[in-house]
Amino acid sequence: MPKADTPVVKTLRQSVKTAQAPGVGFALFVILLICLIALVAGFAFGIFFSAEPTGKGITLKQAEQTLNTEYYECIK
Asked: Considering the entire predicted model, what is its pTM?
């Protein structure tokens, strides 16, 4: 039975061959790693730069300072 090489199949085969070229996988890995690091860093430190109130009339930064003060007093 002969293979049906339509233009779509030819394009897909060429795309797969290109994606398997040396270095493409590594470059994709590096790009995804950088994006993941940026996502984690932005999420982890975003709460410290927020100025939104917590619902009790204080900002998250003020709540953090209060908790730190109380914690340091307990340590002493």
From this structure: 0.39
Euclidean distance between CA atoms 43 and 11, whole angstroms: 39
CA-to-CA separations, 35 to 21, 24, 39, 45, 47, in angstroms, rounded:
22, 17, 6, 16, 19
Distance CA 1, CA 55 (A): 71
From residue 62, give the alpha-carbon distance in Å to each of 44, 56, 76: 18, 11, 21
Q: Within a 10 A sphere around the Cβ of 62, how many other Cβ atoms?
A: 14
Q: How many CB atoms lie within 10 A of CB 3?
A: 6
pLDDT digits (tens, 9 = 90+) for 22-72: 777 788 889 999 999 888 877 766 666 666 655 667 777 788 899 999 999
